[in-house]
Amino acid sequence: MLSDDVVIVGAVSDDPLxxxxxxxxxxxxxxxxxxxxxxxxxxxxxxxxIFLQDDExxxxxxEGKTVVxxxxxxxxLTRNARAMRNFLTTRAAKDNGAERVILVEPDLFYSxxxxxxxxxPNGKPRPFRDLKKFDGQPFxxxxxxxxxxxxxxxxxxxxxxxxxxxxxxxSEVFGKDNFFNxxxxxxxxxxxxxxxxxxxxxxxxxxxxxxxxxxxxxxVEEVYKYLNEYIDKKQMPLLPSPRRQVGMLWxxxxxxxxxxxxxxxxxxxPMKLEDIEGREVIVFDDMVxxxxxxxxxxxxxxxxxxxxxxxxxxxxxxxPEVKDNLNDPAIDAIITTNTLxxxxxxxxxxxxxxxxxxxxxxxxxxxxxxxDVLHLEDRRNTCLYTVDVSRKNPHWEQLIHQxxxxx
Length: 407
Fold this sequence. Notes:
alpha/beta
């Protein structure tokens, strides 16, 4: 059971990610019984903490408590509407005595708008072309960061944020000890090291981890490091010996138009394209918004005679364009997470549900909150992810069975 000094809520009362994290952390009260939202006739709304309300605690119902707000983009509300809910829910917590407010936002809002139209006096010089691209626009990620701080947020936790500029900004505003950008590299490595069904049982040349562009390279290097640690510690019992070979490939993209690219092997890549023949290649990225670059990368890998190509992406934006592009036969399987919980909806997966697998991260996020943020003990010694997969996926029965065994 969670300490009475910690309260977990969602930015909306029915947020599935918030409910699952609260349950995993041992909160006995349902999040919808803690926080209510009132909508006014003029479309404004007001959050209200409704537990422990009595005459003795007016304005003090949260005194000395830590409030964890889980904010994920699911359901009907836009990211803009949810951002406003974050501000007001935080202010409601602080105005009623909360000592600390922690925002858990796995896919951090406005992170793609991580530059403004001017030079950053403390950053690297930017070319005129980049400045021109943002001419007339606001520096939205900075504004969001500052508004969270003004509202009363003390700590921010996110997952696999792509922008070094955003990480630097949040670390400066909240302090480096109060900004957590969680990397799922070790989680992916653990899954790949133990997942016999995902990988081709007839493959005997090992796997290759692939960075599709320069931005993804540090993350792929991190996955590569953890995979090799599992090998060194002999923690890959499900993989036969020949498949305990891990290679690394770096790709580059050359833009040939507004929405088209050519993929080439980076000149300093540890492996070359001719080295991947007969091997399984795992391509990693933090997010997918159109799927154009990834589809082209995977086609290039298949042309180099990769045995199978698996795409692993943390934040999956399920648009018609993405589903169309990633339905390409060059992509044999897709692994993503539920940082955007809508992806659990089979209709949102569309045709991709036949080759899609979702790693649910509630346990991992809850474990990190307890251990690294709240400095509390997590007494549940279980696997830090669960698997969600459609019955349309030909491997669903093996995947679910294996996930149950690990848990």
